[in-house]
Design goal:
With 255 residues, this protein is mainly α. It has one domain. It is 69% helix and 0% strand. Helix 11 packs antiparallel against helix 12. The protein is globular. The two termini are 13 Å apart. Keywords: Membrane, Transmembrane, Transmembrane helix.
């Protein structure tokens, strides 16, 4: 077993992400109690975590995570094409790579947060946050809907619809399809789908339930789940890399 393969096989990425997410929620909960009353904790939570400020810690972490995920899936795609050619499994890696790259582009408003080029662009006039991305488009304005009408609350920022839809799509590919994969073996494209580990799927479901409870029953932590999704994408890629490395190690031992 090569050092690289050994390193991948021994990765504890899911445990690290779990510890990080739990720490964040604990910090957010503690901040709700007056007896804690820590100025530095309060400032960090509200200026670096639970905020839409693009220069905040969570926003930067998410952007970096999407870049890493894009690279990991590109690497998986490259190796798969080299090993078996451009087959169905390679298409899955290409899909995840493009999805990660698109999420990165949206996260940084396609470079506007870095280069500030959007001053004269038309898109910022129809964007709820005056940015050059698609997920914050003001559809209500485009469709000339009545302000403060029934649909205005949902369509004045496309992200109100796209963000939960994005989460559901990922849950479908990362949890639902892998869980029923054995019962729909007649579909070759599903059989070829690379799946994350059972541990990841369980963590994803538990965290989603915990997030919904905290977000609706206690306080808004939407930014936490948004950041988590970017880390989860890395975890999926690392899970697949780990499974491939373990399979290669077993194959070499048996040869």
């Amino acid at each position: 077993m090569t050092p690289t393969v050994r390193f991948i096989v021994n990765l504890y990425h899911i445990k690290i992400i779990i510890a990080f997410i739990v720490l964040i929620y604990v910090a957010c909960v503690l901040d709700q109690y007056e007896w804690v009353s820590n100025q530095y904790l309060n400032t960090f939570i509200h200026t670096e975590m639970l905020t839409n400020d693009e220069s905040s810690f969570f926003e930067i972490l998410s952007a970096v995570a999407w870049v890493i995920a894009t690279y990991l899936f590109f690497n998986l795609l490259r190796k798969q094409v080299k090993l078996e050619g451009l087959g169905k499994k390679a298409y899955w890696f290409a899909f995840y790579m493009l999805l990660s790259f698109f999420a990165f582009g949206e996260e940084i408003s396609w470079g506007d947060h870095l280069f500030d080029y959007s001053h004269d662009l038309e898109i910022i006039k129809i964007n709820a946050q005056k940015e050059t991305n698609l997920h914050n488009i003001n559809l209500s304005n485009l469709l000339s809907l009545e302000k403060d009408g029934v649909m205005d609350a949902y369509l004045k920022n496309l992200g109100n619809l796209l963000t939960p839809l994005f989460y559901l799509v990922l849950a479908f590919f990362w949890v639902f399809l892998p869980a029923i994969k054995r019962w729909i073996s007649g579909f070759s494209i599903i059989n070829a789908m690379p799946s994350p580990s059972t541990g990841f799927m369980l963590f994803f479901v538990v965290h989603a339930i915990m997030f919904i409870f905290i977000d609706y029953a206690l306080f808004n932590v939407g930014q936490v789940f948004e950041m988590f999704i970017s880390l989860a994408t890395i975890a999926v890629a690392l899970d697949i890399l780990k499974a491939n490395a373990q399979a290669q190690a077993i194959e070499r031992e048996n040869s």
